[in-house]
Amino acid sequence: MTQPRQRKVRDFRLPQIYAIILIDVIVGSAVGPILPEFVKGLQRPQLWLSAGTALFLGMQLFSAPLLGKLSDGYGRRPIFILSSVGTFLADCFLLPVRVGFYFANRISDGTTNGMYATVRSAITDISPKDQLFKNLGIEGAIISLGFVLGPAVSGLLLTTFDVVQGNQAKVVAIMAVTLSCVNMLLSWTLRETHPNPPGVDTSALKNELIQSLNVHLLWSRLTAKDSKYLGLKQLVLMQLALTFSIGYYNYFVIFASFGELKMDAKAISYFFMYFGALSVVISYVFYAYIADRINQQRAIFWLAFIGVPVLGGYGLVGSSLVWLYILITIDCLTLSLIQGLIEGLMAQLTTDEDRGEVFGINQALQGLGSFATTLIFGALSLLDLRLPFAWFAVCLAIVAWLANQKLKKL
């Protein structure tokens, strides 16, 4: 008697992870335009917004390595659940439109935002080697799509229900809380991508937390990993310089609102919708059909090299929306593609044993870089709102230089 053939269970983990990322970014981009409401009426509002952004990004300095270590020891799924709960609580803080709750949101959301080290580890766990660049590239495209849908959903909600000015922030916050609930459900039902985790000793976790707050130790750990995975340090340095340069993502709302462009919330939403939609299309085509067929190191050099004058040009657009849209189009074709290439090269150097830890160290250094670049552009903006773009351009030039140095070693 023949045994009945077992039906193969379809693996939906990758699409589910993509859905979690998409919702998380939608929530983050949807609440972005309402954050100025929390500092409205304060002196130098751009400085308070910059301080909140620095706090949000700086929290990753300790949370990313800690969450990465936990994901190696206990699995990726518990970290997804923990992060989704933290984001839900962070969005609840936005319901009272008060400056104190704004900073509480930045602390809570910044801490759980460290999950992106776990996200990349989980994607790498279940990706065949020949599809790694594609899957990580799709992650980047989904993030861009979230930046489109976030403002679009907010705008549609406020327009459909004709919400008056004073209530707009609260209505968008309620929507964010609702979507965060959906992410908690998706995270809870996600099947583990890192089976049979060995666990983590309590003392090891305590040591991880202490180490993550010590920049010197972070660098020492990276150096140790570089001896195991040759070339890792240079990739992390490249990504750190890129983090400095893409600080303009966080600075743009300040620049567009208070600079010569004088863009209101609706104009900013339209801009991000265009930026995100174009970035989705270009990123998908690039990572699905091109990234695996080219020399990735050489591509990073040229994309960064061409992107330098684009970043400098943002500070020179004056009040011209035409030039702004021309520059963002070139941006999508150049520097916006770099991060996925660096992450793909980095993922190829890691193993199941310590992938979460490596990505955690990297994200912690990115958190430090984001914190530092936010303080820098905040200070420069007090002198002249155009000055931060010179800083961003210099940092991207360093990415090109590091990529060129790596090419010389090949």
Automatic annotation (TrEMBL):
Keyword Repeat appears in the UniProt entry: no
The keyword Membrane is annotated on this UniProt entry: yes
Gene Ontology molecular function: transmembrane transporter activity
Protein name, UniProt field: MFS transporter
TM segment ranges: 12-35, 47-67, 79-104, 141-164, 171-189, 236-256, 268-287, 299-317, 323-342, 389-404
Swiss-Prot/TrEMBL keywords: Membrane, Transmembrane, Transmembrane helix, Transport
Bilayer topology term: Multi-pass membrane protein
GO cellular component term, pick one: membrane
UniProt subcellular location: Membrane
Domain Major facilitator superfamily (MFS) profile stretches: 1-408
Organism the protein comes from: Spirosoma aureum
